[in-house]
Structures are given as structure tokens and as C-alpha cells.
Design goal:
Elements: H1 2-21, H2 26-52, H3 59-67, H4 71-94, E1 100-101, E2 104-105
Length: 106
């Protein structure tokens, strides 16, 4: 649950603060961060199933893999989601806009 709900929400909160410092809508950028984090996790899960699973895919075998994944697969999926967060953070950092420091605009 931590890596599916709480971690993306924390990263969305961090990027919403960064967006507000740039003069952008923090809610929109937080929502984008949450969606991209989850999308990158899905991509990472697909890659991990294709890469870590070496048995012919049957329905029972795949359900066993999903219910008890190897630790390396879980970490790979988590780092893929982290890459999504860093992508949105990079986009926000490259934006020009007002920057507010301690209530004063620069």
C-alpha cells in the first residue's frame, strides 16, 4: 500500500509545492505527478513481468507471480515510478515563472 498510494501522494504534494513556487496551479501539477507516477509503475510492472518471469505464462502462474512478486521486481517497479516523479520535477524546474521565497517575489 505504501508504494501504491502514500508514496505517489507524497511526491504529488512535493511537486505541487514546487509548482506553486513557480506560479503554477499546484493541484494540477500534483495530479499530473500522481498519474505519471502510477503510469510509470504500470510500465515497470509490465517490464518486470516480461523480464523476471521465465515460465510459460498461464493464468495460475501469473496470478501467483502477482500475489507474491520477487523483491527485485517490486524495487524495479518502485524505481520506475520514481522516474515518473523525477520527470515531472524536471519539467517544473525548467519552467520559468515567478519564484516566491519567504513571501517575496524575485
Amino acid at each position: 500500500m505504501f508504494d501504491l498510494i502514500l508514496l505517489p501522494l507524497f511526491f504529488a504534494w512535493r511537486n505541487s509545492i514546487r509548482a506553486r513556487m513557480k506560479g503554477q496551479n499546484g493541484f494540477v501539477w500534483g495530479f499530473i505527478t500522481f498519474l505519471i507516477f502510477e503510469a510509470f509503475e504500470m510500465i515497470g510492472f509490465t517490464i518486470s513481468v516480461l523480464g523476471f518471469y521465465h515460465v510459460p505464462p498461464t493464468k495460475d502462474a501469473l496470478s501467483a507471480f502477482v500475489s507474491n512478486p520477487p523483491m527485485a521486481s517490486s524495487l524495479f517497479v518502485l524505481f520506475c515510478g520514481l522516474g515518473g516523479y523525477l520527470l515531472i520535477r524536471f519539467i517544473l524546474d525548467r519552467m520559468s515563472g515567478k519564484r516566491v521565497n519567504n513571501g517575496q517575489q524575485e
